[in-house]
Amino acid sequence: MTDMSVEKPGASVSRATRESKIALPILIVLVVFLAAAPWWAGRADMRLMVEIFYYLVLAQMWNLLAGYAGLVSIGQQAYVGIGGYMLFIGTVFLGVHPLAAVIVAGVAAAILALPSGALLFRLRGPYFAIGAWVLAETFRLIFAQVSALGGGSGMSLPTDIVRSIADGRSAREAVVYWTALGLAVGSVVAVYYLLRSRFGLALTAIRDNEEASGSLGVNAWMTKFSIYIIAAFVTGMTGALIFLQKLRISPDAAFSVNDWTAFVIFMVVIGGIGTIEGPIIGVIVFFVLREFAADWGSWYLILLGTVAIVVMLKAPKGVWGYVAERWGLSILPVARRLDLNSVLDPSRKSRH
Amino acid sequence: MEWINAIVQGVLLGGLYALFATGLSLMFGVMRFVNIAHGDFIIIAAFAAFTLTSLTGMHPLATLIVVAPVLALAGYANQRLILNRTLGKDILPPLLVTFGMSVVLQNLMLEAFTADSRRLQSGALETASFQVIDGLSIGVLPLLVFLVAVAVIWSLQRVFYGTGVGRLLRATSDDQTTVKLMGANNAHIFAIATAIASFVVAIAGVFLAMRTNFDPSIGPARLLFAFEAVIIGGLGNLWGTLAGGILLGVAQNIGAQIDPGFQVLFGHLVFLAIIAVRPEGLFPRIKA
Amino acid sequence: MLTVSNLDAYYGDFQALFGVDLYVDAGETIAIIGSNGAGKSTLMRTLTGLTPSSGDTIRFDGQVLSGQPAHAIVKAGLAMVPEGRKLFPSLSVEENLLIGANPGRDGLWNLDKVYAMFPVLSERRNNAGTALSGGQQQMVAIGRALMSNPKLLLCDEISLGLAPIIIKDIYTAIPQIKAEGTTIVVVEQDINQALSVADRVYCMQEGRVSLTGRPDALTREEITAAYFGLEKEDA
Fold it and tell me: Domain residues of chain B, as ranges?
């Protein structure tokens, strides 16, 4: 990444921080290392990492909605499910290659999000959140009625389609892995640049004061709506990827509020809502806890829910918010920082 | 005739949905607060009644003497100790804290009661029915639930419009700041609203457990039904909430009449249709 | 009765009051005047606990009120007629008055007495409070505050937005209330109105008390200077 500082006489506005400049090469090395996993990681590890990656994408998208656009939704499982089913429809009925079907799934989710979003945006705040949940349930019940897709019991991805992903099981798993890694890295990078664009500025203006943002020429409705569509697109692709790994789909699995929304909300809340780093931390915490508590059954969920409640009450900015505040860190900075040194330099002319 | 039957049974089912929805409607009305764990509290009430009947052999209806006050007290405490801390301009804390509560409660119930499906046995009441005309008979229990829903809403209206507490609750709904100048402590008023809501939740839970099977996982679906009834009926209007519950019940039963798989789906579709044409609901009294 | 010493108040980072000192003796009528933004309303909000205060800065009847929540302060015997009247729209006129009695203090004031002072309210007792004219709403707001039988009544900008003839009507109530033994503080931008009822005046400017004294002891020039923030030599 290039240094984004804008040279202006008087003051310089910059978004890069010292940590971000140090972290960048480390992040690049990490991604290259992860990309090479098929050569160093075992099969079970790779499956776990795929899961981590798709949760990272879901967490980034939910955070984009709730943390930046103020759209708290309990219905994002709608787009995971639609994406998953589009993978099956695309490959089985339309003869699309599975990897192409992942993109088709994203597009289909985005297209379905247009009328869905227009409808849900008529509800405000908490009503939007629950309305989105009703909509996801509606999709689940509709898919359960389609007998060609196996109705309520679902269907498996036929063997010939599984084989068409790549030759041999390891190659297939590597392809799924890279797709997941690509989506994960892509989603972080996309959110980062999205928030640094004019779009990000508009979101900040809306978050600070939705009414006043209108007078700054920001169309709050359209900005939020666009975010909703983008999140649906990425979540839809992720849904297709999830079921490309699972190879089996059913309405209950595809539209699960627990798997695709509750866990994701916990990750974002615990990690730190409204930052890019937060969801990453949250995903890591979630999986570390899960490794320890794998045998706890429902106690694991009780623990997770309790932690999320306590975090929301005691440290609403989450783990990352706490760390960032305590040590002033920002690895993926999206806020502009004003460098006043040049203003204070008397040799320069400055307005006062 | 079977269609008329479906509609009549749907109206009666709507009474149960109105009971689900009343607490949600009330809490939103007083403090603009939506409890995502609302459905799970209904199921907690059901399990509390179930435990009492299995331990003591009490009639399910008699358990309300214990369950309703206990839930009301628990609601008061929950509001004062936890939920009040989430209130403010930001919508995230109340939503996420109650969402977390929902997941925690479901899993605690799962640990305590297993995933088995249960039902409260109410003896003769369960099967009693009377024939209105040929081909249309009405179950005593569904009718009782409906009448209780009407009675609950009527009583709450009396409380709101005829007592000092009701006056304070309505004033708080209007203006949380100015009501402090009346010597009212918001934290206490909110908790009273939640206590009343929880009292109704207990009634809803016990009747749910008498009418249908239940298990720890079905709370969220009850939340959605309650939510749909509130939105269809219009915010801040309890009679509207009853109307919303009835419309939802009728829609579901008509769906079920076409195909059993359409029951819940039809309810959702009617709800979505209402937000498409009239997002403020049928009889709104306050703005969201 | 009321002693305010060195009171500061903040909205976030913005300081709205700077070391305000004032006192009110029992039975007095005090006017606080000042232009828009001088800090009068902030002072009222701080006295009633709607805006937080700290330290031992506000004492009332020997009790420390600073730091107390609004509902506790009201129960201690303060009542406020808030700026903009702030009637409860879903309550009728009578309910608006009745809710004022919520703090549960005994005293002379009750529904009948408020209706006797403002007979028009009695005729409209079942109307929604907000269906009334501005002047009538102001009467409800005053009545509502009196229903708590306060020892000290704070009236925040009760003439704001009303026609002069209505203001006169409203202000005839002040001596009546005083005659019942209630101590009164009126906050006004309308200097003449305020001076006509006040025993003593405080003038505020930019969050500070800029002038204080008896209305008859103060000259027009002094008041104008303190009100508008003009230096003496400029006035």
Answer: 2-115+134-277
For chain A, the residues whose C-beta falls within 8 A of a C-beta of chain B are: 66, 70, 72, 74, 119-120, 122-127, 129-131, 133-135, 137-138, 141-142, 144-145, 152, 257-258, 262, 265-266, 269, 273, 297-299, 301-302, 304-306, 308-309, 312-313, 316
Q: What is the token pair recorded at B192?
A: 């009273």
Classify domain C2-234 at the CATH class level: alpha beta
pLDDT band at A71 (very low <50, low <70, confident <90, very high): very high
Inside any domain, residue A349: no
The residue assigned the tokens 């009637």 is C87
Q: Return the partners of chain C (3 or more C-beta pairs < 8 Å).
A: B
State how far the alpha carbon of C232 is from the alpha carbons of B267, C35, C216, in Å: 75, 17, 19
How many domains does chain A divide into? 1
Residue C15: which H helix or E strand, with range? strand C14-24
Question: How many other CB atoms are found less than 10 A from the CB of residue C28?
Answer: 17
**Measured distance CA(C139)–CA(C172) in Å, rounded:** 11
Kindly identify which residue of chain C lies nearest to residue B286, measuring between CA atoms: C90
The answer to whether the Cβ–Cβ distance between B261 and A266 falls below 8 Å is no
Average pLDDT value for residue range A87-94: 95
Tokens of C159: 């003439």
Give residue C129's pLDDT band: very low, low, confident or very high (50, 70, 90).
confident
Size (chain C), residues: 235
Residue C10 — φ and ψ, nearest 5°? -130, 145
- Half-sphere exposure of residue C200, counting CA atoms within 13 Å on the CB side? 12
B165 shares contact with chain C (CB less than 8 Å) = no
Q: Return d(Cα C55, Cα B138) in angstroms, integer.
A: 68
Q: Which CATH class is domain B2-115+134-277?
A: mainly alpha
| Span C63-121, pLDDT tens digits | 999 999 999 999 999 999 999 999 999 999 999 999 999 988 888 899 999 999 999 99
Looking at mean pLDDT, say which of A12-16, A324-328, B183-187 comes out highest. Answer: B183-187
Query: Does residue A120 register a pLDDT over 80?
Result: yes
Secondary structure (H, E, C), C185-200: EEEECCHHHHHHHCCE
Q: State whether C82 and B178 contact (CB < 8 Å).
A: yes
Q: Indicate whether A6 belongs to any domain.
A: no
Q: How many helices (H) and strands (E) does chain B have?
A: 11, 2
Q: Which of A136, A74, A79, A132 is nearest to A269 (CA)?
A: A74
**Contact, B20 vs B264, CB < 8 A?**
no
DSSP calls for A50-94: HHHHHHHHHHHHHHIIIIIS----S-THHHHHHHHHHHHIIIIIS
What is the model's pLDDT at position A349? 40
The top-scoring range by mean pLDDT among A338-342, B215-219, B235-239 is B215-219
Q: Give CA–CA dist A303/A308, Å, rounded.
A: 9
The answer as to whether A78 is a domain residue is yes
Query: Would the pLDDT of A315 be above 70?
Result: yes
Contact state of B164 with C98 under an 8 Å Cβ cutoff: yes
Tokens of A199: 């779009």
User: Residue A145 and residue B265: Cβ atoms within 8 Å?
Assistant: yes
Query: Are the beta carbons of B175 and C49 separated by less than 8 Å?
Result: no
Q: Where are the domains of chain C?
A: 2-234
Q: Is B116 helix (H, G, I), strand (E, B) or coil?
A: coil
Domain that holds residue A308: 12-342
**Residue B162 C-alpha, separation from nearest chain A C-alpha, in angstroms:** 30
Residue-wise pLDDT for A225-270, tens only, equals 999 999 999 999 999 999 999 999 999 999 999 999 999 999 999 9
Percentages of chain A per state (helix, strand, coil), in multiples of 5: 75, 5, 20
> Tokens for C41?
């309303």
pLDDT given for residue C233 in this prediction = 44
Pick the closest to residue C28 from C154, C142, C139, C113 (CA basis).
C154
